[in-house]
Amino acid sequence: MNDNITQLSPNLPILQDQLNDHLEKNMILLLGNCSAFFDGRIKSRFPDGDRVLIIKKDLSILLHGSSGVKPVQWQLAGAGKVSFRIVDECFQMETYRPKTDESFFITFSEVYLALSYEGQSDETASIIGHEKDFVEYLVNNPDIIEQDLQIIESEKEIDFGFIDIWALDASGTFVVIEVKKSSATPADAHQLRRYVDFFQKKGQKVRGILIATSLPKKVKTYLKNFNLESCLVPWQDVFPTISRPSSISQSKKLDEFFNL
Fold first, then answer.
1. Could you report the per-residue pLDDT of 77-92, keeping only the tens digit for each?
2. CATH class of the domain whose range is 131-238
3. How far is CA 151 from the centre of its chain?
4. pTM over 0.85, yes/no
5. What is the CATH number of domain 5-117?
6. Which own/partner contact pairs does 248-254 have at CB distance under 8 Å and 24+ positions apart?
7. Closest Cα to residue 189, out of 156, 238, 225?
């Protein structure tokens, strides 16, 4: 077993002391047969059944059943004090939220496994794929759009919105660029037209380019009718999909994934 994971005592008095000591220091996991009762503005009761109780370091509480993704009952972090005690030869977790006068009880008739995990983790995910990431990439690689294109500004604010990219072409003409990371829609083309019209009414010579991963026939027709341009930039060429391990096929279900 990992050095950061401690298997706790099956002896209830010892387990009680261990868990009360580990609260807010470690993540706690209890697997066993239990009932649950939530007493508050809304009341809920769960009969005896095999469930998993997870208490995180911030005292977030999750009670999971033997199926389903969502917990059957939960409590947000910092809602109230959490404690363990022995009641009528059963093992009970209790938490009380004074602000709303709510109590949450989970009573284990049998504890199959009790673990405490003291490891540290970085909860900040590196997320790639937002449209703003696409815009940033194009700003840093303008030749993908057009040779000798000079980027002036991204997220340029005008009276009724923000232009994704404001640029200058090789001939000195301003260029309005609307970026979509998916297939373009007629609404996207219309938005580009509005931006171009805004500057043309001010007497500026300006071009409009719609960037997307694909252009339906209706969108192409709209752009042609209003003398607007387009540039296809496949999203996956910019941010390739993270490769899936070869041992895991696309069709694997969640329970199959964890049984690999």
1. 877 889 999 998 899 9
2. alpha beta
3. 31
4. no
5. 2.70.180.20
6. none
7. 225
